[in-house]
Amino acid sequence: MSKLGDDELGLILNWITDLNDRRSFSEVCKQWLRVEGLNRSSLRLLEPDALLQVLPRFPNLVTFETSKFITDADLSFLAQTCPKIEVINLSLKTPREISYQFDEVLIFDNVGDEGLCALAKGCPKLSKVLLRRRKNIGNFGVVSLLNLSHNLTYLDLGFCSLVSDLALEAIGSANSISVLSLQGCSLITDRGLGFLAKGSSSKTMKRLNLAECDRITDFGVSLLEQMCCLVELNLAECGPKVTDIGGLSIAAIQSLKRLNLSWLVNVSDHTLVALAENCLNLEMVDLTGCDLVTGVGIRAFAGHKCLEALVLRSCFNVSDSDVVHIVLRCQFLKSVVLDKGLRIWMLPQTQESISRFAELVWA
């Protein structure tokens, strides 16, 4: 019996999807170990210290992920070793219990603009980049990424606290971005939103997360009306300067399907009535903590043809009868989320009536 060549082994390996089975495959002999490495398309690195030893075995990676601290040098080595990478997830998951002092020490070893530039230069096929909580990533790195990665469609810069309007100017000029998260980027202002709304990205952007960008106001939010392809928008916790003025402009985006207005304390029924009338494709609305919302705004959605989920946590001006009304008159409504503190106050008969038509979730 003749020895199997690398090509034949590669074809066999394509049929093995279970990670444990692939590991067993690689342990048969040195040839099988090498072939498994050459055919590996994704890697999740749990031990950054092993990066220099591990990566050379996987030159054809398309997806790379690590939630650990890595350096600019590590990312540069990754770009040199694995130039075919298209998806990279470096989102940092920092435990809440971590001490402030320890966090300050680690941040100096965290990847920054230099590493991001090296990645963009070495991996020209990048399409999806997640950099959530990488505190050293700033405008220079983001601008370089946008200038070099012409296939980039997905960018997560959540809680990258150095990112400001300058980076948004480059993002706004891109013509391929469809998903953008700027959650917690506290330096972003209305000027940055103007770059997004008036640039090429306004014609491609489908999902935009601006949660906790508390420097933006009605003026910037109103500019988003120009983003005609937007399907999902998150404005949660954007502060008191976002009111019904901005809300009415958002209601003019008829393509919207998912909208989060959580904790916008100055958004009221006026916005909801406009949303119900104009956003006929709307499937989900999150109104958590919107103090000014009452049954009038909720009842405006009666008869809406697409609404599937309604989140009303901490909406204390909405009554049981308002919820029953909307559930009975929205035939596609699948779930209603209410504050768990209200559960003991709602009659069992009322809960049963609601549950007949939609899932009642207490959160």
Automatic annotation (TrEMBL):
Which parts of the sequence belong to the F-box/LRR-repeat protein 15-like leucin rich repeat domain? 110-216
Coiled coil location: none
* Domain COI1 F-box: start-end pairs: 3-41
Q: Which CDD domains match?
A: F-box_AtTIR1-like
The protein's superkingdom reads Eukaryota
GO CC list: cytoplasm
Q: What is this protein called?
A: Uncharacterized protein
| Gene source species | Prunus persica
